[in-house]
Amino acid sequence: MSKDFNTNFFKTWSSEMAYILGYTFADGSLYKNTHGYYYLEYTSTDAELIEKVRKLLGSSHKISFRLREKDNPNYKNCYRIQIGARLIVEDLEKLGVIQNKSLVAKFPEVPRAYIGDFVRGYFDGDGGVNLKQYWRKSRNNWNWVFTTQFTSGSKDFLDGLRKSLKGRVVGGQIRQKHQRGGFDFILSRHDSLALFKLMYDNAPVDMLLKRKYNIFLKAFEVLKYNIAGVA
């Protein structure tokens, strides 16, 4: 039985295309075998993201589900969708998505009008928001730390991401992970506010991960920021 999907989805830039392309660089994978079978796969612990991918691609493909192993508390339920489509795979390759991209991905050329959508898509897959409290001994009080970060196995990709944000954020550090490998691009409080504005200004609800968006809102509430002045 054939499945429906938009085979031309990645041919023309749009907010939807940029968002899914960004997410593809995070949680998407391309596969080609010797029998001429091409397919695109997305895997995530967030069912919401996989549902968004299917909806935006106009796909009727089944979402598979894998239960968390009971004996491993660090293992989460996993959701996956596979789309067999040679044309989509070839279009993604032209845009810089390659097989086994984790360690060698390069940041693609994204039109300025769609950089916010692309970054939000990647952030929903491999980004994070952190709001933590620590005791500041020198002042004898509690202090809040608010940061955001992007994770990648490719330092080149994060370097390209940092350059794409130039003029929007003023800092940010790329640090190598020592235990699990890979790199983090970390933004401080001020730059996290600028990132929020870039990613979520006029963003439709079907193109953002609510869980991460809500952490931003919680941070603004705790830190007493005026959201109207940010977004």
TrEMBL record:
Pfam families linked to this entry: LAGLIDADG_3
GO molecular function: endonuclease activity
DOD-type homing endonuclease domain ranges (all copies): 20-170
Sections of the chain in a coiled coil: none
Name of this chain's protein: DOD-type homing endonuclease domain-containing protein
InterPro entries recorded: Homing_endonucl, Intein_endonuc_central, LAGLIDADG_dom
